[in-house]
Backbone:
């Protein structure tokens, strides 16, 4: 089913926004906003916000997120499950949803870096930031490099990021791409709600790529080992040289750094 659209001017914002509907979503589009996550904070479930440019894009760990023209800056409001385990798994589920969408576009070399950085080989293609501003609803912020060039604005990103244009000769238009990602996101959120987590952990374990040496920051305590995926409870599994595994609850892990395999 195609998207329908109309032009409106929201009372709280002077810029005109386009509102479109497709696949159970309502998408608000703006030319420039500080952060789409903040705009989405007061919106109902299954509503999303896209902006051409963010002037104060937010990344994980209070970092800023370069949001130049030509990238997809999207925030989607989804209901949060009542079930504790499904609620915790949301962060992994959104990474899987974005990978599912990008696989539909045949992006090669796709993998996830725990918990939900979307990588192409060793370069970051997309990042996700989940906020919860009100009970029962989560805002899923998706930053996907498309034809923009973040490394031109921040030299420290050189050789660390990539964009869809490197793999697709003509990447989809941003609104179409937004609806495609939203379709996959909705599918996965509903599946998580209906089926619980087992299917998720099974599928996501195929997306970490080859096992690699990582360092976990457990709030100041550091553990190094081979990351071999998540177990049936969603805990990270770290294996040492002797093949012994340790398991870490996701909320214990502040950060995971990938180290070259030769270092262990
Ligand atoms: C990360 O640090 O990897 C997460 C980056 C998330 C960026 C997106 S862009 C759309 C949404 N609005 C924001 O301010 N941040 C998220």
Residues:
């Amino acid at each position: 089913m195609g998207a329908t659209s109309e032009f409106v001017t929201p009372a709280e914002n002077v810029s005109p926004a386009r509102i479109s509907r497709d696949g159970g979503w309502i998408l608000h589009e703006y030319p420039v906003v500080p952060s789409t996550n903040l705009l989405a904070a007061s919106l109902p479930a299954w509503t999303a916000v896209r902006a051409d440019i963010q002037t104060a894009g937010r990344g994980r760990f209070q970092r800023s997120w370069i949001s130049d023209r030509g990238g997809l800056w999207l925030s989607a409001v989804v209901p949060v499950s009542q079930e504790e385990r499904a609620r915790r798994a949301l962060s992994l589920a959104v990474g899987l949803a974005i990978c599912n969408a990008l696989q539909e576009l045949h992006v090669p070399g796709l993998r996830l870096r725990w918990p939900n950085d979307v990588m192409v080989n060793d370069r970051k293609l997309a990042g996700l930031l989940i906020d919860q501003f009100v009970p029962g609803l989560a805002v899923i912020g998706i930053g996907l490099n498309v034809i923009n060039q973040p490394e031109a604005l921040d030299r420290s990103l050189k050789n660390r990021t990539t964009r869809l244009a490197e793999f697709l000769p003509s990447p989809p238009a941003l609104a179409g791409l937004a609806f495609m990602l939203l379709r996959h996101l909705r599918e996965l959120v509903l599946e998580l709600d209906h089926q619980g987590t087992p299917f998720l952990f099974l599928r996501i374990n195929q997306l970490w790529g080859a096992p690699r040496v990582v360092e976990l920051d457990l709030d100041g305590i550091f553990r190094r080992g081979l990351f071999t995926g998540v177990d049936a409870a969603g805990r990270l599994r770290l294996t040492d040289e002797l093949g012994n595994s340790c398991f870490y609850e996701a909320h214990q892990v502040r950060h995971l750094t990938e180290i070259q395999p030769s270092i262990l």
About this structure: Helices lie at 36-40, 84-104, 150-153, 174-195, 198-204. The radius of gyration is 18 Å. Residues 35-37, 54, 57-60, 63, 65, 67, 73-75, 117, 127-129, 141-143 surround biotin (CB under 6 Å). The chain is about 20% helix and 35% strand.
